[in-house]
Design a protein that fits this description.
The protein has 206 residues and is mainly α. It has helices at 2-46, 48-55, 59-86, 92-106, 113-141, 146-168, 171-174, 181-198. Helix 1 packs across helix 4, helix 1 packs across helix 6 and helix 3 packs parallel to helix 5 (113-141). The protein starts with a helix and ends in an 8-residue tail after the last helix.
Length: 206
């Protein structure tokens, strides 16, 4: 009897904890994913001195890396947003930030300006994949307080842009291979997204 009662308390505790975790994930999941994505986007500016010192780039070439990344992320977003509106593509979120962060990590293997430029373009495409579907996720999870939820979502992105350069600064201490920490963050993000989608309501709100 005592054993059965103990097991019952354990199940009750897990049930309450599970419900609490669902509420936390629904409230803070999208801002966290936005932060993860923008770790990569924000890191590029901090890597400019690294590119100049190690690849002999001039300021025009360095600025072109940021420009190409930003223009691809900006121009592609409306197109991918149209796709997200027409079809349900939740995988855009983990694939998007994974492409962004793995591209930043792969800069550790770059041997030329052209490789860095290509990787920055790919990172921009990843960011473009992420944002439209992530905005829909905010609507889907927090439709009853959309203004507040979008505010948290924006804060997550700003935090990623702020912390990305701090993280990327590790290359100046530990070397280029430190950039692989961005891939580790992407893996953690994929696990978080997987858990989040287990908590979603079955009906999509648009």
């Amino acid at each position: 009897m005592a054993h059965a009662l103990g097991v019952g308390y354990i199940y009750l505790f897990l049930f309450i904890l599970g419900g609490y975790m669902k509420r936390i994930i629904r409230k803070y999941g999208p801002p966290i994913f936005h932060c993860i994505n923008d770790f990569g986007q924000g890191s590029l500016a901090a890597l400019i001195p690294f590119f100049i010192a190690n690849f002999g780039l001039n300021y025009y070439q360095s600025a072109s890396i940021i420009f190409c990344n930003t223009i691809v992320a900006s121009v592609a977003q409306p197109i991918l947003g149209y796709v997200a509106d027409r079809w349900r593509v939740p995988w855009f979120i983990p694939v998007g930030f994974s492409i962004t962060l793995v591209s930043i990590s792969a800069i550790a293997l770059a041997t030329s300006y052209e490789m860095i430029l290509t990787l920055s373009l790919i990172a921009g495409l990843g960011a473009a994949l992420f944002h439209p579907e992530a905005a829909l996720l905010v609507n889907r999870m927090q439709s009853n307080e959309l203004g507040n939820a979008m505010g948290r979502f924006a804060v997550g992105g700003s935090a990623g842009f702020a912390m990305g350069p701090l993280l990327a600064g590790g290359v100046y201490v530990f070397g280029a291979h430190f950039l692989w920490v961005f891939t580790a963050i992407a893996l953690l993000g994929v696990l978080s997204v997987s858990y989040t989608h287990l908590t979603l309501p079955t009906k999509r709100i648009v």
